[in-house]
Amino acid sequence: MVFLAENLKRPVWIASGTMTDGVLQFDTPVLYNWNWRTLSSSVDIMAFGPSYVDHRRAVMSNDDIDNIKRLDKVWMDVTPSDPTDVFAQDADFYILSVEVGSGGVGRVMFKRLSPDG
């Protein structure tokens, strides 16, 4: 069993996306509590340049990321205003990558959505 600092966990709502008739639509968001933070290391800054401020990284148990995939929409520290919105228009981030890690600890990278979605 993986133990992560409980007092550092923050709410993350994730809506899983599926392609329906050529249109990406999203399910009802699911609440997770994960340890996440902004990027700040010099390696991240070199990799992403000035856009490093638009990225977040989270760590969690590998069990938590079974149903998470790239391009799912995300709300970080806020609750979705309309959980039934199939386009998840008020989401502020999306999943950039998902890594199942060794030792039972996985990582997810988020990127801020642009104003035009």
Major sheet, described briefly? 6 strands, antiparallel, barrel
Structural class: mainly beta
Mean pLDDT: 85
Low-confidence sequence ranges = none
Q: Tally of extended strands?
A: 8
Distance between the termini: 37 Å
Shape: globular
Supply Rg.
14 Å
Helix content: under 10%
Biggest sheet strand line-up = 1-4-5-8-7-6
Structure description:
The protein is mainly beta and 117 residues long. Helix content is 6%, strand content 43%. The chain contains 1 helix and 8 strands; from the N terminus they run ββββαββββ. The chain has one helix at residues 42-48, and strands at 9-15, 17-20, 23-26, 30-38, 55-61, 73-76, 93-99, 105-112. The strands form 2 sheets. A 6-stranded antiparallel beta barrel has the order 1-4-5-8-7-6. A two-stranded antiparallel sheet has the order 2-3. A hairpin with a 5-residue loop joins strand 7 (93-99) and strand 8 (105-112). The N and C termini lie far apart (37 Å). The mean pLDDT is 85.
Which properties best describe this structure?
117 residues, 1 helix, 8 strands, two-stranded antiparallel sheet, 43% strand, mainly beta
Short overview:
This protein has 117 residues and is mainly β. Helices cover 6% and strands 43% of the residues.
Layout of SSEs?
Elements: E1 9-15, E2 17-20, E3 23-26, E4 30-38, H1 42-48, E5 55-61, E6 73-76, E7 93-99, E8 105-112
